[in-house]
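User: My collaborator sent over this chain with a note saying "see what the structure looks like." That's all I know about it. Can you take a look?
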Amino acid sequence: MRELPVKIRKEVEEYAEKNKVDLSEVMEKVKKLYNDALYYPEEAMGVVAAQSLSEPATQMTMRTYHFAGTAGIQVTLGLPRLIEIYDAKKEPETPSMTIYLNQDYQTENKAMEVAKKIKEVKLRDFVVGDVIDLINLVIRLKLDMEKLGKFGLEIEKLKKHIKIKNVDVETKGSEVIVTSKKMENINLHKLKYKVMESHIRGVKGISHVIVSKDEMKGWIISTLGSNLKKILEVEGVNPEITTCNNIFEIYDVLGVEAARNAIIIEAIDTIEEQGLGVDPRYVSLLADLMTSSGSIMGIGRYGVAGNKDSVLARMAFEETKKHIITAAIEGIKDPLKGHVENIIMNQVIPVGTGAFQLIGRFPGQVKAAEKPAKKDSAPEKERGIEKVKEMEKIFSKKTASKPAKKETNKKPKKAEKPAKKPNKATKKKK
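Assistant: Without extra context I'll predict from the sequence alone. Here is the result:
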């Protein structure tokens, strides 16, 4: 049995000391569980992880569900949420946050105060009626003065919050009058929408807020919409355990390690919510792969699969023609180190026993290697001299035979021409 790592050993010792149990007995049980969980070297863990995550996904629902015990807020769950996580979508369909409060704010009234601070308030929340004057190119918005009073706002101060270019804003009684400075190519309906969406107070992006109490963690604020950076700055919010389901927001605010943990937590929660179970090590393996480059990459043609070193592996996934043509034009070589490309080439894949090469000496070769050490013996020298003489004789015979062939082939041709000239001269003399 393999020994436990130092970290696990320390944790077991702390557990035994804290709970006052027999250390050796607990250590043996943990060691057995640890050794049962080990895998053989070069086992195809990627294939096992892919199968372990994909099979439960086939049993997931395609619907969205409400938050437990609340109405009006929906969160994407099941297969659509799992696809969001592993495709690394920058904005989820239903972004949400779970905001935990500090000990000083663990009362209903204080939790409601924090919720009021957090919820985004737009100008449309106070508008009772609107009129678009097409002749004078003016938009008139009538406001609910009582509602403004509840939020502690004055109508004159709303001018500062309407920040739109080339627009004049005036207030008259309970009305806000918006006039465009540009007189040509004006779309008053679009302008009205922009004015109505003007941010007045609260945190941008937080459209719904619900306060509830958890037995373990006290008062919690659940939101529809997320803005982690601004929420962590709000007084009374516990920044250590406050979370959101937008992985890219976590990456921007807290870094790649926090994003990796968010991928693991979100994926496991999504799977377990459906009543399914997957070993967390498979999820963490995929999370490591997605964040190994220092940023978040999805599992797809523009992420992990599209950035493989092997041309054949990229070609086998998607966009076959594109990868083959670019590889041919640029003269890219494929090292054939992965299993996909070796399957395509009908070669042994570097997985399991195929990942190793056996190097060794046969018994007969060891004895042969020892012979050169006895070079001083006289018989071996004589045999060597005899072999050299034999080789010299063979070589001399080959060299002697080669020029003889050349003489027979070439000399008669040259000799024929001068031989004819003296014959002609003798005929003339006669």
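A starting point for your reply to your collaborator: The two ends are 116 Å apart (CA to CA).
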